[in-house]
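[Automated response] Your request has been received and processed.

Submitted sequence:
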Amino acid sequence: MVTTETWGRRSLFNTDRWARLLVDTLYHYRGTAYLLHEFAIMPDHIHVLMTPLTSLEKAVQFIKGGVSFRAKKELGSNMEVWQKGFHDHRIRDAGDYAQHIRYIHENPVRRHLCERASEYLYSSAHFGFEVDAAPQGLKPQSIEASDGAAEAAPLQSNTGPFQSKTGAAPLQSKTEAALLQSKAKTA
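Generated structure:
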C-alpha cells in the first residue's frame, strides 16, 4: 500500500478535473507499471493498494510524474503537485490485505466526504471501477497447519468488480467474497 501527499497538503484533488486526471493516470499505467487493487483519491493525498510490476519506486514515479506532466499539459498548471517521497506498507497476509482495503474504502467516510464508502466518486469502493484481483499466495488469516508450516492459499476472485460469477446481485466487497471463497476451498 502506498500513500503520498500533495505539496503543502493542498486540496488539489478536491476538484473534479484534478481528481479525474489522477484516476486516468492510475488506469493509464495499470498493467504495465503495477496491478491496481484498490485506491482512494482524497483532496490532499492518495492511497493506492498495488502490486508493482517494476520497482515500487518506479511505479509511484509513474503515478506522480504522470499526474504532474498531465497537469501542466492539460490543466495549464505549473505548480508543484506532490510532496517528495511516499509512505509504503508491505502487505503481510490476507488479513492485512483486508484491513488495508477497509482503511482505503473508509478514509473518505472518516474525513466526512461521504456517508458510505460506495458513494465516494474517486475511490475503488465506488461502483464501476475495475480493479485487479487480490494477489495470489497471500497467507490465510489463521494458519492451522499441523506441522506449523504456513500454507499459501490463493486469495482472488475471477469475477468483475462487485459481481458474482453468475452476474447476480453485487457482493458486499470483493475481499470478503475472496476470503469466503478461500475458506470454502480449505474446508
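Summary generated for your ticket: The chain has one domain: 2-133. Residues 162 and 172 are 7 Å apart (CA to CA).
If you did not submit this request, please reply to this message.
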